[in-house]
Amino acid sequence: MNTQVKSFSGFAAKAAVIAISAFALNPVPALAQGAAVVVGWESTVDTLNPAVSALRDVAPIDNNIFDTLVWVTPDFKITPDLAISWDVSDGGKLYTFKLRQDVTFHDGTPFNAAAVVANFEYIANPDSKARSPLSTLGPCLTAKAVDEFTVQIICKEPHPSLLLGLGTPYLAIQSPAAIKKYGTELGLHPTGTGPFIFSSYTPNQSVILTRYDKYNWNPPALNFKGPPKIASLTFQVVPNDQSRVSQFMAGQSHAMNRTPGVYWNSLKSNPKFAQLPVPISGLGIFVELNAGRFPTDDVAVRKAIQYSVDKKGVVQLAASGVFPIANTPLMKGMVGYDPSLEDLYPYNPKKADEQLVGAGWKKNADFWEKDGKRLTLKFTVISTRPAYVRIAEAMQEYLRKAGMDVQIEQQALSAWFAGGIAGEFSLTPMQLVGTDPSVINSIFMPGQYMYWNKYTNADLEALLRQGMGEFDENTRVATYKKAQKLVMDSAVLMPIHQNVDLMTLSSKLKGVTYSAGGFQYFGVATLAE
């Protein structure tokens, strides 16, 4: 996959350009001396337990506390990390890993095969309430220690995406002693083998990490040996875009993620800064449509929504046009991406009207109605994700023009998640991250924790199961293309734009990198004096 995003068009609104210009007129104060790095981070933190967190943007923080069995490079090459080698046998149902013998957890616990087994047992235990790892591991929930440094993962069915999944922070290896000691409070005491040790967490304010001086088992793909050069790493939680930008411009942070599109191009020309667009593989940024709730239980309504929205206009309104739009479930560059779906739902208000008329809807004054009920859409969005709020507001503008009454509800994360599970929404924006096409299973396989759309289709489910267990790449690609066609024909998913974390950094901060999936890593970063 291409590690650079090449299309960042669009300019700031006039007022925002003036604001940036005002910043640029004042010299940026010298950054704090020493090796303490501060990152302005858009996302709040629900838990630092990688197995349980429901927030994608917590995973990059975990990526600096924990290590994984394998390290997956940005171009999806599977390379050693805690495991030095592996073998796949028994028709893809048995994975045997040889482990490093020189690794110690932050609490002094030795890393070995028993530690890996303890992690698998923890994930498989329903009391742990694991989220992403369950869908990622699929049929591979059993681990067995062959000897002290050899572990086997046993699958009930072939699972070709396992190695890619093992390289994500969701399957980071946690200290078995910490798992036993802290139980449900594990997320407040994250203990890994990574380059940084957890120091403190202040809710809605910061996560502070310090250098692990004993760290000497870096992933070989990074070409770096030894502990980090920076002494501490602080993720300063700043959900408000303007505040995050202001702090960065004032020299109060060395980097910021999720740079608002309105600022991205204006900052590009400033030599004091560097830019790192981090592509996030998976389903991109999309809107899920609820097939289990009126009125989006009507496929004609779902298709009308798709035709009524100009995605280029949405991205322009929501992000100053910096992101390439998306028209397919799987992002470009991923295995299974299907270019034939690109033109399935062009912006066509007339076709939207035809869908509704054909399904018995009638226009009454400004809004569509059917059987005495107005076409009202409940658009739920996480209140602390301004990018999502802007997408909802931009779509609301188009849909109201099309005669649909859109009611946006900004919700706290917990309320949004509970409402999603209960199906208490018509539309909701989200992202789903994965390095393998099987990521789509998470929202379309009944029983998965993100199965919110309530869409049922036996053919789709059969294709998703087939894709999960298929090792022949050509057959696998064809299977996921068929699955995506069914998804798009049902109109239960509306791709909006490709998912890219626009990071802006001080030019003094070098070496920030990321693993496949777009998980930032500061273990090899340096900060100039």
What does this structure look like?
By secondary structure, the protein is of the alpha+beta class. The chain has two domains: 35-278 and 501-527, Periplasmic binding protein-like II (D-Maltodextrin-Binding Protein, domain 2), CATH 3.40.190.10; 282-498, Dipeptide-binding Protein, Domain 3 (Dipeptide-binding Protein, domain 3). It contains 16 helices and 25 strands. α1 (14-25) packs across α8 (261-268). The radius of gyration is 23 Å and the shape is globular. One of its GO terms (molecular function) is peptide transmembrane transporter activity. Residues 1-32 form the signal peptide. Residues 77-437 form the Solute-binding protein family domain. It is found in: Periplasm. Belongs to the bacterial solute-binding protein 5 family.
Write the SSE topology.
Blueprint: H1 14-25, E1 36-41, H2 59-65, E2 70-72, E3 78-80, E4 83-89, E5 94-99, H3 113-124, H4 132-137, E6 142-147, E7 150-154, H5 162-166, H6 176-182, E8 196-202, E9 206-211, E10 232-237, H7 241-249, E11 255-256, H8 261-268, E12 273-279, E13 282-289, H9 299-308, H10 311-319, H11 349-358, E14 362-364, E15 367-370, E16 373-374, E17 376-382, H12 386-401, E18 405-411, H13 413-422, E19 427-433, H14 441-444, H15 458-469, H16 473-490, E20 493-497, E21 500-506, E22 509-510, E23 513-515, E24 519-521, E25 526-527
Parallel strand pairs: 1-10, 1-11, 17-18
Antiparallel strand pairs: 2-3, 4-5, 5-7, 6-7, 8-9, 9-10, 11-21, 12-21, 13-19, 13-20, 14-15, 15-16, 22-25, 23-24
Helix pairs in contact: 1-8, 9-11, 10-12, 15-16
